[in-house]
Protein 1
Amino acid sequence: WAYAVGFTVLPHVGGFLGWLINRKEIPLWYEKLKKPSWCPPRKIFPVAWTVLYTGMGYASYLVWNDLGGCSSKAVVPLGLYGAQLALNWLWPPFFFGARNLRLALIDILCLDGLVIGTMCSWYRINKIATLLMVPYLGWLAMATCLTIHIWKDNPEQK
């Protein structure tokens, strides 16, 4: 059970650090950006990310467990997962910290591709793990559209 907890908690570490480092930029800068009318309220984001990080973390444990731990068979599926997790953790410093909307957009577009690749590589290993990633991919689709709109609608921030 220790591995299950560790894998499940891991995504939260980067998410929490990203929030901790960038939390002051949200009221100072983010609130002033022009955003589409369908942008979720700010209070929804931490709840959504807590649920999504928990699901993806547990999914990664299922894949790791089904592949017998850190075996040669785990390199690609867990490598893709690790790469997407790194891009996920980099988005807040790019967007909030550096205020670089273009770099944040490039990051999230690459992230989308890596998440799809991760899910494709996991499908034959563990279908439940793949299904646990579906809400994350859906949220990322919304976040990608939101990033595109913010990038386009705030040209002085580019």
Protein 2
Amino acid sequence: GSSWDKCDFETNLCKALPEFNLHPGWIRRNGQSGMGPPYSDHNGNESAYFLSLSSEMQSSSAALRTNVFLPTDEEHICQIRFHYWVSQMSGTLMVGLQKHSEDTVTNIWQVSGELRNQWNVNTITINSTEKYEVIFWGMVETQRQGETVAIDDITFSEGC
């Protein structure tokens, strides 16, 4: 619905991810950047922007952290929908939940080594009785040409 907050990375404005352009390791780019795949966003648009791991380090991982969200309840379920690209050799994308009272991040979803280099979509549902943050964590183990993890169109439901 229209009440979902959407981060499509076309601009630097995103309520749920206020400083995504300051997260080291992630870079906001499009398919024409000359940095290898993906060569378009998840809609096939070569000039539209998405986030991908910067490929300058030998092995890289990077975290992307949301705002603090309020506790969920039956009426306010937090659903996060996102498009992702994980390269087939060594890419991993994890989504973690960090509750207010805990130091540790609980892994709630993970994908690695997708068979085909293509955009996929996933929706995760979060239940938390306390305030929490959500962390997207991307990693590539090798820096072979074209190895990357990318994220596009992260959408947060009203309950987030």
